[in-house]
Amino acid sequence: MTDTARPKAVPTVQVDNERVRVTEWRFPPGGATGYHRHEYDYIVVPMTTGALTLIGPQGTTQRQLTTGRTYFRNFGVEHDVINANPFEFVFVETELKDGGAR
Fold first, then answer.
1. What is the pLDDT of residue 99?
2. Which whole-number Å values give the CA distances from 85 to 23, 36, 64, 89, in the listed order?
3. CB-based burial of residue 64 (10 Å sphere; 0-12 exposed, 13-18 middle, 19+ buried)?
4. Where are the domains of the chain?
5. Are 94 and 34 a contacting pair, CB within 8 Å?
6. Which CATH architecture has domain 10-96?
7. Which residues contact 72 (CB under 8 A, 6 or more apart)?
8. Prediction pTM value
């Protein structure tokens, strides 16, 4: 698992209805989401260019994200997401509820 002393990423839900949930995530330097499992397919739109560290069942990886370069993931992903940059990192996540919880 991850260091519980990390600052917390701050989620702001912008839309939440029967079909989608759209959340802006703001990570201070070193900030983390905490370990979680995605119950829905989701799309991430980075608002910042930089690196995120992902800690999951298969270990630790680092991903480079680019502003505006959207990516999609299927439900079931388990991880902690950590800002590996010395600056705030922001992305918008859209969860697709249409398929129902899985």
1. 62
2. 21, 21, 11, 7
3. exposed
4. 10-96
5. no
6. Sandwich (2.60)
7. 41, 42, 43
8. 0.91
Distance in angstroms (rounded) separating the CA atoms of residues 65 and 45: 9
Q: Which two tokens stand for residue 102?
A: 């899985």
Asked whether the predicted pLDDT for residue 22 surpasses 60, the reply is yes
Angstrom distance (rounded) from CA 97 to CA 42: 9
How many Cα atoms within 13 Å fall on the side-chain side of residue 33?
A: 22
Distance, in Å, from the CA atom of 77 to the CA atom of 43, rounded to the nearest integer, reads 12
69: tokens are 């370069």
**Helix residue ranges, H only, the chain:** none
Please list the residues that pair with 32 across neighbouring strands: 8, 82
Model pLDDT for residues 24-73, shown as the tens digit of each residue: 999 999 999 999 999 999 999 999 999 999 999 999 999 999 999 999 99
Token pair 């680092």 in the structure block, residue:
62
